[in-house]
Design goal:
Length: about 200
């Protein structure tokens, strides 16, 4: 009986997440171009001016895709500042981060997202956990308690699950329209330490 209740709860959470995801993606896609450009500038200023970015030696970023908030200026600044920049690459059912020295190295990969080729240094937490770290995390929706909902594949949740120090220096970013009052969460969901929505 108990396992049936748990399964019902998980089914309800998945359904609720699907509905929220659909609604927020529609809202995000409807942001006017001028408003989007302004928000992209503001998020770059907020991250580049952030103490964690300033002090970071190793920066795990992501390349924005589709209607996500732009990260290009942030990634470019990280390279200009001489930070070790790692970007995600989807390999089978997992996500790994590879060192990038130029954004020109990137190629279309999973779902058409620009990714590293995968032939450079792979981020190894055991080597870098004592370095000054920062990871930026995309998301579809965030709630007022800092919970995050992604696209449903769990890549970031699995990647961060065993990396406690990296989770401490994690920032979720997006547009203000991506915030909801409360997200349905389960025990596998990892929330960023900080969320910045503009």
């Amino acid at each position: 009986m108990k396992s049936m209740v748990i399964n019902d709860n998980l089914t309800n959470i998945k359904e609720e997440k699907r509905n929220i995801r659909k609604e927020i993606l529609q809202k995000r896609a409807a942001i006017p171009l001028e408003q989007r450009k302004m928000a992209d500038i503001v998020i770059a200023d907020r991250i580049i001016g952030h103490q964690w970015f300033y002090r970071s030696e190793v920066f795990l970023g992501f390349v924005n895709y589709n209607t996500e908030i732009s990260t290009i200026d942030i990634l470019t600044e990280a390279l200009n500042k001489g930070k070790k920049l790692f970007l995600p690459k989807i390999e089978e059912n997992s996500m790994n981060f590879y060192r990038v020295n130029s954004l020109n190295e990137l190629k279309e990969g999973y779902k058409g997202i620009l990714e590293p080729k995968g032939d450079s240094e792979r981020f190894d937490y055991s080597i870098y956990k004592d370095a000054r770290l920062l990871i930026l995390i995309p998301g579809v929706a965030f709630d007022v308690y800092g919970n995050r909902m992604g696209y449903g594949k769990g890549f970031y949740d699995r990647f961060l699950a065993d990396k406690e120090i990296l989770r401490t220096y994690s920032v979720g970013i997006g547009y203000k329209c991506q915030q909801v009052d409360l997200l349905p969460v389960d025990e596998l969901d990892i929330k960023p330490y900080q969320v910045i929505l503009v």
